[in-house]
Write a structure and sequence with these properties.
Helix content is 35%, strand content 14%. By secondary structure, it is an alpha/beta fold. Strand 6, helix 6 and strand 7 form a beta-alpha-beta unit.
């Protein structure tokens, strides 16, 4: 038996993208013990995975903060006597920990984020517009460097664990003949968010379709206030904000027929439970390698004839055109058609 440590501290979507790879590793090598080192809020993502996967949390704002804290963390990890260390993050914290392990003679490998290629993809002039390697394959490459070769065979985090819907009945009547549509209208950065006045038209359309039950996902007070307004305006939709913990939310998403999401963590969460996703892309682009697991490009709604796209990998850069044409030129009808096609 070997012990493998995998490090990935953030962000939500990136941590979610590790799961198909880690799951596939665990099923291919059931004799090995795999430890995932990340932040506590991500622990629920790993609870239903194979039993040879273990999660430990790093308290990067407390006990493990700064160099002193990283030294404490390293001593705790060293005591586990790992044989391999896979750095899925490639940031200063993980570089430091990996160096300490390497100096102790432990086999280590680090992700190649393809920064140069991503820069060429997003630069304003002389853009190199080609699809890049996916994040899933970049994670796989790290493990392959350590000598592990396997098929990426993941389907759902609930593939080998029953979906527990206990406590969720109060948020909806039992599913019958209607289709269940999830809508996740928010993202971390403005360049990924479809304008709310246009989004409202999409929500209005499906809220008035008696064949479809709509559940809207979000978090935080700002998003809650907007979703509450929609729920008041359209009584047929159900706000899911603050009603479920992470494990319950994943279980609930597994019951959706389609999730309509921005390029955001919810796209990845729905993908982890084998739910079809219609995704919307503005400043970002699927070519950067962050499409959800097993999702198809045909379900990505985007403007194809803007030479400025993508202008950033994460959608955080201000629009140099000042008009966010990448979002505003997408019509509600385009989105509605894509969702309805997916629901067929």
């Amino acid at each position: 038996m070997s012990k493998i440590l995998i490090m990935r501290f953030s962000a939500f979507g990136d941590v979610a993208m590790t799961i198909p790879v880690i799951y596939s590793l665990a099923t291919a090598y059931p004799m090995h013990e795999i430890t995932v080192l990340s932040r506590k809020p991500f622990e629920d993502l790993f609870k239903t995975l194979p039993s040879n996967i273990r999660f430990i949390s790093a308290d990067l704002k407390g006990k493990h903060k700064g160099i002193k804290g990283l030294n404490i963390l390293y001593k705790e990890l060293k005591a586990e006597k790992y044989d391999y260390v896979a750095d899925f993050h490639s940031v200063l914290r993980s570089h430091y920990l990996r160096l300490r392990f390497k100096l102790d003679g432990i086999h280590t490998a680090v992700i190649d984020k393809g920064r140069s290629d991503k820069k060429k993809l997003t630069q304003k002039n002389n853009k190199v517009f080609v699809p890049l390697k996916s994040g899933f394959l970049r994670y796989y490459d790290v493990l392959e460097k350590l000598g592990f070769k396997f098929e990426l065979n993941f389907k759902s985090i609930f593939e080998k664990a029953p979906v527990n819907l206990y406590g969720m009945v109060s948020y909806s009547e039992k599913k019958s003949t209607e289709k269940w549509l999830g809508i996740a209208p928010f993202a971390k950065h403005k360049g990924k968010i479809y304008p709310l006045e246009l989004q409202n038209k999409v929500i209005e359309h499906f809220a008035n379709d008696k064949r479809i039950k709509v559940f809207v996902f979000g978090g935080g007070e700002y998003e809650k206030s907007i979703i509450d307004d929609w729920a008041h305006k359209y009584p047929t939709i159900v706000s899911m904000v603050g009603k479920l913990n992470m494990n319950q939310e994943l279980a609930f998403m597994s019951q959706l027929d389609v999730m309509y999401s921005m390029d955001s963590a919810n796209m990845h969460l729905a993908s982890l439970v084998n739910t079809q996703v219609v995704s919307l892309w503005g400043a970002t682009h699927p070519y950067a390698g962050f499409m959800g697991w097993n999702q198809c490009l045909e379900n990505a709604v985007q403007v194809d004839d803007l030479t400025c796209r993508p202008c950033s990998i994460y959608g955080q850069k201000p629009c140099y055109r000042k008009d966010y044409a990448c979002l505003n030129r997408i019509t509600p009808k385009q989105i509605i058609n894509s969702i309805e096609n997916a629901l067929l």
